[in-house]
């Protein structure tokens, strides 16, 4: 292989390795949001809609919406004086005189704002979905680790039961029960691993990653700023910043401008121009000005005016409904976050430490004969259930925080 090609191949291989290593590296929640917003096909289509709306605005901004017309006529003339040839040229241009251009530009500008607001709203929805999915994946990882820990503790319990049985301090029933418990915990671990794989696959789908790209998730469940949940202030914030409210309002503005355009379109657009005629027989040249317009006798744009008026009425209802929906979403999210915080407060650090100690001390207490096997099983199951409930509570707290941030216009 020539040296230059060999060098190029080595450089490309190094770049590919670095890219693969980056994708296989760690991933924080904020990085996940950025990655999803970059890869999401819905956002890419909405970006195209913004571009289309800007193109329509450029078209609406043209000074003349119609091109000029050029008419050329030529032909022979027969008369008593003899044969001759006449020719004429007419040039005309439609001119809007009743403010149609201004109304058209206003409607197009509003539609650009609508497209951009919908893009921002979708970005917020995707970010909230990513953070919830990220929390589910973190919780699934913790459940899988807890199930593996529970299996290890069950195996230690089986070893302790066998030791006590061999020493004559325990019945065969305890050994068999310990074996059953090991099998049950092995099944729980397999189920937790399956659910973890499903949660990670769902996150991969939202991120737009291939199944071979397995980044390590970095983050903690339930981490949030414990600010005061002032519902009235949060509703006011949402009404001022939510992109879907802005989109509904600007859509109404666009419809109102289109209604004005439809009303003004009933006024005929005149055509002005000039004509030049050459008469060979009389050796005359005639220059005349032109003015023509349609007479709105039958069609006065009634259909477009009726449709535009109905659209305005429809969007007025939608604006009011969007405001009510946003208020309800904020109220629901505030209530959910308050409940999640209250539940999370029940798992203080000393409670978590006590649960961990119970898991570690239970087997030793059984081995020392301080508790029987049934008590050991009860302590172990209660501890695992409590720790699993803690994971559920923290997962819910993460999801509730994401829902409130989205409801108040975050991530846009």
Helix content: 55-70%
CATH superfamily: Outer membrane efflux proteins (OEP)
The name of the CATH topology is Outer membrane efflux proteins (OEP)
Mean pLDDT: 86
Seen as an oligomer or otherwise, the chain set is single chain
Structurally, the number of domains stands at 1
Keywords:
11% strand; alpha+beta; 412 residues; 10 helices; Outer membrane efflux proteins (OEP)
Structure description:
Mean pLDDT is 86; it is low at 1-23. This protein has helices at residues 3-23, 29-39, 41-60, 100-166, 172-207, 231-241, 243-264, 302-345, 349-367, 373-407; strands at residues 26-27, 69-79, 82-94, 216-217, 271-279, 284-292. The protein has one domain (26-62, 100-266, 306-407): Up-down Bundle (Outer membrane efflux proteins (OEP)), CATH 1.20.1600.10. The protein starts with a helix and ends in a 5-residue tail after the last helix. A hairpin with a 4-residue loop joins strand 5 and strand 6. It has ten helices and six strands; from the N terminus they run H-E-H-H-E-E-H-H-E-H-H-E-E-H-H-H. The relative contact order is 0.14. A four-stranded antiparallel β-sheet has the order 2-3-5-6, with no helix packed on it. The chain has a two-stranded parallel ribbon with strand order 1-4. 69% of the residues lie in helices and 11% in strands. The radius of gyration is 38 Å and the shape is elongated. It has 412 residues and is of the alpha+beta class.
